Amino acid sequence: MKKLLRFIILLLCIVPMVGTMNLLAERGDTTKIKLFDKYLWTWYGSQNRWAQFPPQEKRFERVFMNFTLTCPKGGCGEWDYTMRVYARTRTGRMDSNLVDAPLFSKAGAFSDSLRVSLQPTFKTKYNATAKKTDTMPNDAFQVWMYKDESKPFLVTDSMSAYEAGYWNYLFSATGAKVDSFYVAGDTTFIKGTRKAYKPFEVVNETEIGRFITPYGKWHNENWSYTWDFDVTDYAHILRDSTEIKVFYDGWSQGSLFDLDFTFIEGIPARETYEHRVFWSGNPTYGDPGNPIEKFLKPMKFNRLQLTDKITLRLQTTGHGFGGTENAAEFSQKTHKILINGEEKFEQYLWRGDCGQNPIYPQAGTWYYNRAGWCPGDVVQYWDYHLTQFFNGSDSVEITYAMEPFENQDLSKRASYIIEGQLLYSKSNYMNNVSLEDIKMPNSAYKFRRMNPMCPGQKPLIVVKNQGSNTLNSMIIRYRIDSGEDKYFNWSGNIAFMEESEIELPVIDFPSGDHTFTVQVFEPNGRLDESDLGDIKTVSFSNPKLTTSGKVALMLKTDAVSGIPNGIRYEIQDADGYVIKERGNFQDGATIRDTFDLENGCYRFVIYDEALGDGLYPIFQGSTRGYYSLREVGGSTIIFNSQAANYGQPSGVYASFGDREIIPFRVNTNAVSVDEGVTESVVPSLQISPNPTHAGIANVQLIGLPRDIEATLQIVSGIGQVMFQERISTTDAQSMPINLQGYPSGAYFVRISVNGMTFSGMIMHNAE
Is the pTM of this model over 0.85? Predict the structure, then answer.
């Protein structure tokens, strides 16, 4: 009895402690929940998963949805497809639809009619081993009957039946069909015309994220990438047992798909407690017989509480092309938001930065700017703050007015995928700033277009105002490694829940690998009301070093019929001043240039100011280009667009979009630590890939002194010189060759230097 009493007392002590620990978990604690794990998308449709999210009573400062694509064996999906993620919440309300009520079904599958046999049937097949006709019995299946008029969807009876309505064949000893007979069956079921109301529970769907897949043909199974969505505004529905639906708008195999949610405990800056979904669908744009205004009907909303922060959120992407103005995917339109009939906001529906996509290169037209999206990127939503319009009014009318447009070719459908939401929330902080990203310096894959950063450049960070007061000032502390802290007093103007990029004063750092730490604090001169997300540390490296004061450029411009190549390049110093610039090149031209540079840090910037596809057009009949940078008199290759990178084929890194930035350092007093050959290496000629990839290969002649004149020849298998060019042994350190347009077969690459000839055979497949 005493033991039992002690146990009861101990239990009474433990139970409230467990509950208290769960409710008072540490701020910043993180919970991760995986929903999809390497799911392979193969066809148009949706997949639903039930998630066990944290309980309703917990609060989270930030919630992120982490979306990862990985290539299966054989590569990723080829096309850019829309993916939409929904949270499905059940309302408990019932409704019904008038539908066809079945009279029968085949094991639960419905059809207009069904021909069966109530007697066993069989099928014939030729037996190649026995050289005769074999017969195989058909399995029986159940035909379910629905005969109760008062309960039209209830199964009332069933019977066994066998497949019928097909031909059987007889075969000769050689397998030839010599006769046939029809298995007609003996019973036919007809659907009939009975109608009934079918009840269902009303389920609300809220789109919490939209994404467009990359053109993945060039990616192999070594490639993957993760995109992060901030879904904190949907924390009120991402609770307990919640159904998540992912819709894939693709008509071919996609990629392996992971979906995770990350919950960071704390108090959110903007805490949404209710929302409304409207204008959700894919209406046609520009059809006078079906105007989009029928879909975008004005909506009236009430204020719920006096303390509401009310936000209109729109996710709009344009799709379809080939009709008038290539709408809606490639048509720049400005739409309007009207409040109570008055224009208050404009929406310029256009992404003008697709050519700077961090997911590059891709295999398709990823660099074309589009209406609200880019291939391989998250769709950014538009938030319009409406709180002020509800002051002194119980309700407001919201109108989404599309720019007038008529499609003259309705066979080429133009449309928008639209989701409109109204978020009701409250603000929990007055003065709160967070550090969202460190863009420079940062070695992260997604920031590789602007890194590595030169010593003496300005770091670039992204901050967000998470306080209801407009952010006018703050202090930013930063340091290299564990060195001395530096401080920057920032002043400006950032509205509630808005982000801004901020440049810090220039920093210097020695060679090697480093860390960079940034902290933001004292927003508006006050104590930051939440320090979660205020500090970040990233890794970064120096640009490549050359110990030669001369850097050689080799450039081959591309050629697309009817479109100039638009290639221009420049050399910038660490302060961003252009010290050399050239452009206006002929299509298919070979350009060699040498830059005489003092010690310092520089950026080589190459632009495509025409098509924006870099030097690697994908169109039939076009000619691809390439470029490389290397030190003169040394072994350092600063950049070679023919080299394979990130698991992609050789050559595609000439597909850089509308620009590429290559930083590098010059220090003639330093000893280069870059890997390379020395003068004592036995000279050799190397060719890769072999066979060529898309007609392109890379030639390396190593082990010879630099800056010696040489002759390059490409010779056919019968000894015919197909191509000849004067080069130098510096060029031959890493030189692309292009066999596009040559017939398939074996070719010899010959480089002659001072009476010596180095040669190698390469196989070329023109297909």
Answer: no
